[in-house]
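lol forgot to send this yesterday, sorry. struct tokens for the thing we talked abt
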């Protein structure tokens, strides 16, 4: 985040008005640096520290290394993945999936749904056969307020502008059962948020055995990584063109990892180890 502000890159959390102004940029950098200093100092006083992903772990380790308070807390830093309900989704069939690219995320600005729409347009531009084959993008997510509703309207306008009305579907505020039905039938999942601490939607894709593409390498190689509409379109193409045996093998790997790493049992074990550390520290 600091790097983006320093480079004066306009984004959802760095308005163009701020990015264009040297004074606003420097003021924001000062505020962020003071906040980071306070955050790193508080981390230095905590033991143990449990984080929810490798991305968060790297971020916390960086903050600890720049803390004004000397600390050996990095030694007590451990990853404890949040518990995810993988049991239901891991029962879905691995075969018979439809040519559906599924997005599962709230309609918030940082989720960057527009990139997914542009990626599908790019896919159809470079591989028009997929449009003829009926490949579809389904965007499922909740709308919290008027701002989110306006965002959905803008996304629908983009779909209309790109003439993709018959290839993209919006499902807003879907029930959990509806979400499960789409997870059971889709073949590809996509996530376009950058710097996400823990993408539970990606875990759900994995448990449901959906090949996924995402911007960050939070997991083992059981999907594709992309950064812009062009690379996402290429990832979609690679996933859609996978020979059936390879696609099945990837789904099996993803499901096995989700069940092993993100289960309730795994979370309880990691939490218990952290608590034991606290008890030992108190006794000593």
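and heres what i got for the seq, position by position
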């Amino acid at each position: 985040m600091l790097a983006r502000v320093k480079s004066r890159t306009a984004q959802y959390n760095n308005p163009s008005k701020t990015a264009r102004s040297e004074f606003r940029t420097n003021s924001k950098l000062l505020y962020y640096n003071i906040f980071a200093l306070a955050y790193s100092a508080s981390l230095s006083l905590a033991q143990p520290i449990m984080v929810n992903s490798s991305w968060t772990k790297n971020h916390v380790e960086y903050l600890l290394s720049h803390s004004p308070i000397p600390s050996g807390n990095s030694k007590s830093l451990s990853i404890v993945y949040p518990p995810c309900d993988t049991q239901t989704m891991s029962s879905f069939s691995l075969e018979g999936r439809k040519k559906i690219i599924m997005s599962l995320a709230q309609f918030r600005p940082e989720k960057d749904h527009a990139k997914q729409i542009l990626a599908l347009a790019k896919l159809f531009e470079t591989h028009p056969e997929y449009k003829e084959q009926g490949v579809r993008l389904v965007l499922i997510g909740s709308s919290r307020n008027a701002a989110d509703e306006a965002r959905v309207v803008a996304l629908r306008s983009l779909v209309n502008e790109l003439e993709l009305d018959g290839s993209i579907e919006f499902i807003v505020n879907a029930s959990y059962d509806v979400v499960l039905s789409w997870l059971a039938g889709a073949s590809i999942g996509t996530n376009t948020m950058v710097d996400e601490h823990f993408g539970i939607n990606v875990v759900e894709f994995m448990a449901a055995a959906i090949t996924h593409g995402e911007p960050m390498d939070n997991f083992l190689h059981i999907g594709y990584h992309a950064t812009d509409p062009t690379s996402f379109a290429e990832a979609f193409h690679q996933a859609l063109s996978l020979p059936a045996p390879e696609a099945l093998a990837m789904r099996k790997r993803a499901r096995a990892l989700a069940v092993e790493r993100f289960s309730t049992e795994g979370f309880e074990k990691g939490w218990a180890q952290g608590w034991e550390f606290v008890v030992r520290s108190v006794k000593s």
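The chain has two domains: 2-79, 86-261. anyway ping me if u want another try
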